[in-house]
Amino acid sequence: MADSKHENIKNGKVIVIGSGNWGTTLATLFCKNQKIYLWTIDHKEADEINKTRRISQFPDKTLSKNIVVEKKFSREISKDDIVIIVIPSRKIIGLIDELLANKVEECIIVNASKGVKHSTLMTVGQNFISRMPKIKFATLSGPTIANEIIHGIPAKAVLASKNVALLLHLQNILQNDLLKFEFSRDIKGVELAGSLKGLVAIAVGIADGLGFKTNIMGLIMTYGLHEFDTVMKFLGVKSSTVYGIAGMGDLITTCISENSRNRKFGRLLAQGIGMEEALEKVGMEVEGVSMAKTIQKLAKFNLSIPLFSFVTKVIFEDVGNIRNELLDTLNSISG
Fold this sequence. Notes:
alpha/beta
C-alpha cells in the first residue's frame, strides 16, 4: 500500500455498508457535506427506509435527504470511492467474497466493525489486506456510543492507516463538528483494542446484574485494563495504543455507558439468562463474545488473565454461583 504524503487521492462516492445503529449513525454524520449511499441487505429493507425516512433503532430521527438507501451493490464501486464497513465481524469474509465477485479490486476501505476471526486471530484489516492487496485501507475506532452521537453529543475517534495521505484525505472528507479524529498507524492495535475492551464491559455488566456498585466496578476496570494490556503486549501491540483513546478510552466508555451492548449482555448473564437468549435480548452484535472465543485460544499460552477467564467461563459454561465466582476471581488478583 502506498505511503507517500504526496499521493494524489481523488474524491469519490461515500458508501456505508451496514444499516444498523453504527452504520446509520455514521451515514447521518457524514452526509452533512456529501451524499451518502447507505447499503442494506435487500431491496425490501431499502425501500421501507426510503419510504418512511426512519429506522427502528432511532425512531425519533428522520434520515437526511442526502442519504440514499439501497440494496448493496446496487451501483458500481470505483477506485476512488470510500467504502465504510459497518457489519458484524463474523460477516467480513463473506463481504470480501462479494466485493471480489463484483470485480472490486481497488477502492478505499474504512473498517468501522469490531471483532477478530477467532479461528485465525486475524483482524478485519488483516483479512481485507491479505485478500484485496490493491485497496487503500484504514480503520475507525474509539469511544463512540452511537446513541449519543446521533443525538448531537460530540465524540473523538481514531483513524488508523499505514498510508499518511489516506489519513489526511479521510479527515478532509469525513471529519465534522460532532466527530473529530486522532491519527494512528497501528491498524492491528486499534482493531484489537476495539474488540478486546468488550470483555471488560461484559464483566462490569455482570457486576451490575449482581447488584454490585462502583466499588466492584472500579476493581473490574482496573484489573481489566491490566489484563487488556497483558493480552495486547502478547499480540505485539504498542503501549501507546493500549493507553490511547482507541484502547483505554474506548474501554472506559464501554464500561460506564448504559447504552453499551456488552454491558447489557453481561447484566443478562448475571440474571441467569443463557448466552443465546441474552444475545437475542440485546438484539445487536456483541463483539465481546467473539473476543471471548479468541481468549479461549490464548489461554493455551498461560497468560495471567483471571478476570478474562472468568468472563469466558460465564459466557460458555454453566457457572453455579456467579457472584461467588466473581468475588473469588477479584480477590485472587493482586498488583
